[in-house]
C-alpha cells in the first residue's frame, strides 16, 4: 500500500565553496534532515559549486561530472544508510561538448529512481546558462519512489505552468524545484520585492492549479567571485506549499535552514475532489499550446 503521509524537506544553504567542501556540507545537512524525520530531501540547484553561470568561461566546464560518479556514489550510500529519498541537483558531463543541469532522484535503497535534465535554460545577465547547458531531452517526469511519487523540475522551469501540469498529470504528489535565484544587488531596492513576490506566486499557483505540494530549495549568500561585478545575492526564502497554495514552511532570506512539512495524500485527494480542475480541463481545445505564438 502506498504511504498516505510522508515528510519532505528542502535544505537551504550557502554553497559558495569548492566542490569537496560543498559535498561534505550537503551530506551532513541531509543527515540532519533525516534525523529530524524527513523522508524525501532536496538540495538546491548545482549543489557542488558556486553559481558559475555569472560568466561565460570554458574553464567552468571542469566543474561538471559524469553520470554515476562522485555525487551519485556519495548520496547513494547515504540514501541507503538512512532509508530516505534524496534529490541531488548536479552539473552533468554527458560527453565532450554536451553538458546538462541535472538532478538525480535517489531511492531509499541507494538506487537511481530517476534522472531529470533541466528543460528550460535561461540566458539573462549573470545567469548565462545557455553557454553551459544543453536543454534536457528526458521530458517532464513523475518518479515513483518508495516514499511517494515526486516530480523534479529545476529553477527556470519554475516559471512554466506547462512543466508543472505535465508532471502533475503523471501522478506527482510533490513538485520539487531545486533553485539558484537571487537579486542583482544594484536592482534589489527598486525591483527586489516584486521579483521575489512573482517567484513565490507562480509556484503557489502551480500548487493550486494542479492540487499538488510544491517544495522549492534555494541557496543563500552573496556570490561575488568576478572582479568588477556586484555578484548575485541569492535570496533564500525556500518554502513548501500545500495543494491550495498554503505555505506550510518558509525559510529566511539569509540563513541556512532545513524546512520540513508533511505530505497528506488524503488531503490532496479531498482538495482535488472539491476543486476538480483536472476534470474540467478542455483538452479538446488546447492544441495550440504547442505553438510558439498564435498569429
TrEMBL record:
<dbReference type="InterPro" id="IPR050345">
    <property type="entry name" value="Aliph_Amidase/BUP"/>
</dbReference>
<protein>
    <submittedName>
        <fullName>Carbon-nitrogen hydrolase</fullName>
    </submittedName>
</protein>
<dbReference type="InterPro" id="IPR003010">
    <property type="entry name" value="C-N_Hydrolase"/>
</dbReference>
<feature type="domain" description="CN hydrolase">
    <location>
        <begin position="6"/>
        <end position="265"/>
    </location>
</feature>
<keyword id="KW-0378">Hydrolase</keyword>
<dbReference type="Pfam" id="PF00795">
    <property type="entry name" value="CN_hydrolase"/>
</dbReference>
<dbReference type="GO" id="GO:0033388">
    <property type="term" value="P:putrescine biosynthetic process from arginine"/>
</dbReference>
<dbReference type="GO" id="GO:0050126">
    <property type="term" value="F:N-carbamoylputrescine amidase activity"/>
</dbReference>
<dbReference type="InterPro" id="IPR036526">
    <property type="entry name" value="C-N_Hydrolase_sf"/>
</dbReference>
Amino acid at each position: 500500500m502506498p504511504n498516505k503521509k510522508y515528510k519532505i524537506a528542502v535544505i537551504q544553504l550557502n554553497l559558495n565553496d569548492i566542490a569537496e567542501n560543498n559535498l561534505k556540507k550537503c551530506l551532513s545537512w541531509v543527515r540532519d534532515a533525516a534525523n529530524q524525520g524527513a523522508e524525501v530531501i532536496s538540495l538546491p540547484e548545482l549543489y557542488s559549486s558556486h553559481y558559475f553561470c555569472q560568466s561565460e568561461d570554458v574553464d567552468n566546464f571542469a566543474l561538471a561530472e559524469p553520470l554515476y560518479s562522485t555525487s551519485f556514489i556519495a548520496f547513494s550510500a547515504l540514501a541507503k544508510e538512512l532509508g530516505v529519498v534524496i534529490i541531488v541537483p548536479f552539473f552533468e558531463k554527458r560527453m565532450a561538448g554536451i553538458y546538462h543541469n541535472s538532478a538525480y532522484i535517489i531511492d531509499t535503497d541507494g538506487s537511481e529512481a530517476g534522472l531529470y535534465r533541466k528543460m528550460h535554460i535561461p540566458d539573462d545577465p549573470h545567469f548565462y546558462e545557455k553557454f553551459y547547458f544543453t536543454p534536457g531531452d528526458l521530458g517532464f517526469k513523475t518518479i515513483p519512489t518508495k516514499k511517494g511519487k515526486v516530480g523534479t523540475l529545476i529553477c527556470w522551469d519554475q516559471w512554466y505552468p506547462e512543466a508543472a501540469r505535465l508532471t502533475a498529470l503523471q501522478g506527482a504528489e510533490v513538485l520539487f524545484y531545486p533553485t539558484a535565484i537571487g537579486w542583482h544587488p544594484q536592482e534589489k531596492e527598486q525591483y527586489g520585492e516584486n521579483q521575489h513576490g512573482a517567484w513565490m506566486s507562480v509556484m503557489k499557483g502551480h500548487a493550486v492549479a494542479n492540487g499538488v505540494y510544491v517544495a522549492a530549495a534555494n541557496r543563500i549568500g552573496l556570490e561575488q567571485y568576478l572582479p568588477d561585478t556586484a555578484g548575485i545575492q541569492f535570496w533564500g526564502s525556500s518554502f513548501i506549499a500545500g495543494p491550495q497554495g498554503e505555505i506550510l514552511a518558509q525559510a529566511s532570506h539569509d540563513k541556512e535552514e532545513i524546512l520540513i512539512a508533511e505530505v497528506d495524500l488524503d488531503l490532496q485527494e479531498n482538495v482535488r475532489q472539491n476543486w476538480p480542475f483536472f476534470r474540467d480541463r478542455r483538452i479538446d481545445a488546447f492544441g495550440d499550446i504547442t505553438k510558439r505564438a498564435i498569429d
